[in-house]
Write a structure and sequence with these properties.
274 residues, mainly alpha, MetI-like fold, 11 helices, globular
Amino acid sequence: MTGARLPRWLPAWGAGFLMLLYLPIALIFVYSFNANVVNMMAWEGFTLDWYRSILGLPTTLSRSENYVQSTATLLAAARNSVVVAAVATLVSTAIGTVTAIAIARYRFRLRPLYQGLLVMPMVMPDIVLGIALLIFFVGLGLDLGLHTIAAGHCVFLTSYVFVIVSARLAGMPSDLEEASADLGAAPWTTFRRVTLPQIAPGIAGGALLAFIISMDDLVITYFIAGVDSATLPLYIYGILRRGIKPEINALAMLLLAFSFLVAATGLWLRSRRQ
């Protein structure tokens, strides 16, 4: 197919797809600066008051015009999301990495079954997994809170880390590991000096993906969260039920900017390792 002419419809189709993907985000960005407090889609002027309101800074808005009545509540929800995401990322990255290495480098009975069971949480509907986790935690007599959210996130985040690290291991030949063993290196030394540096980009990528997914999760968190353990997506969902105002757009853009920052950090760390 070298030198084949590009079909005429393909650029138009690609442009339409990109527009469908990024135009809604562009609209959220633009209307997050809209000064209209009644109709979000009717442009009235430029203002930064919605961002100031979220950050707890002085604004020209009256108390009835904004939804974030307490910046402390918003910051508490954001802090809960970061704590849950950090704990779930650490645990799921450790379990997913060790499991991927065990399945990729060792042969044992029921190996395909374990692979299928590890991937299952990724393809399972979120609402089914959320209900199952709720029944499980209640059956154990646990009080719902941040600990149950973190534990629930570990269930499906481990699958993402497992798949990414497994893909990295599949593209890595075992010759170096075998040579290290032939030279008398202990298994731990081989892992630390040979295997780990090779799969480090995959581990970092899986960890960052797990962190972002945990920060953005709503459906599963909705079922296993306690009364006083709202995360940022639950907080946004709560104020979204009262209507859509530019303030919600501003909050969404801050969350999107944070996700982009995490992704950019991951790409920077990966480039330094190469």
